[in-house]
Amino acid sequence: MKLTPLYQKHLELGAKMYTTGMGYEMPAYYTSVAEEARNVRERVGMNDVSLMGRLDIKGKDALALTQKLIVNNAARLADGQALYSVMCNDKGLIVDDVVVLRFEQEHFRIITSSMFRAKTQVWIREHMQGLNTYLTDVSSSLAMIGVQGPKSRDLLRGITDIDLSKLGFFRFAFGKFGKIPCMIARLGFSGELGYECYVNTEDAMATWDVIAKAGEPHGVKPYGMDTLDALRWEKGFVFFGFDATEKENPYECRLWPFIRYNCGDFIGRDALLKIKETGP
Q1: 202 vs 8: CA distance, rounded Å
Q2: Which strand ranges, in their side-by-side order, compose the sheet holding 45-48?
Q3: E strand or H helix at 275, and its extent?
């Protein structure tokens, strides 16, 4: 059984727990999926997504490796920017869907699901040969709290020194929650205005309490993974591993708009061009 740093908090809040396919004990919901989803749509909710994988690519060839691995264009990213993409194999079939964050020229982070964290790490290492890079799995050192909903910005701006009014979609910045170091990214899987807050593992419980307390005037409520599923279904977000699998290519699951053929010779490029010509 695997536990996130916020496991005890979920028990305190009376969450209905379940075991994920990768062995994590996670909250399915706290009250009901309908109530929690409606609260995210109308006000603001907070959830634990600490089980996500975080893989850091560093070195002089970090950009070259990232560009080789994904079908999107990592070269267009500036420091503090992120993008969504998929990784494909030589046949054009999806290996994983990921979010890529650029910290600097020689430091990128790959965000993956817990389901594909280990497999994607192996995939990346297999394609590092000959490149001046190294890979570090920093997943266990970080907690990740989602704050999602139309009032999420109002909630967070009262407790962080980051200027959220200047933080655009798929952007991230470093700051603090009081004395707690954090990174906040304007990302989410809910289909609403929202943010993902990264803190060191030892600061997870304190950060949850700070956000929950500050969110009381805004109607904040915790929500579980079943609720997150309902939210992303409404938006139409693809959950790789369920809605789409390694048997599909991006053209078969509506992910082809993220392919950038003009950004170099990424893995699967030739196969995807043939699929584009012939149709899925």
Answers
A1: 13
A2: 172-177, 180-185, 194-200, 142-148, 45-48, 221-222
A3: helix 269-278
Q: How do beta strands 25-29 and 194-200 pair?
A: unpaired
Token duo for residue 241: 């591993």
For residue 226, what is the enclosing H or E element? helix 225-235
- Interior angle at CA 232, CA 228 and CA 235, nearest 5: 150
Q: Give burial (CB, 10 Å; 0-12/13-18/19+) of 19.
A: exposed
CB neighbourhood size of 245 (10 A): 11
- pTM for the whole structure: 0.95
**Would you say 25 and 1 are in contact if contact means Cβ atoms under 8 Å apart?**
yes
Q: Rounded distance, CA 260 to CA 112, Å?
A: 20
Tens digits of residue pLDDT in 50-96: 999 999 999 999 999 999 999 999 999 999 999 999 999 999 999 99
- Residue 216: phi and psi, rounded to 5, are -55, -45
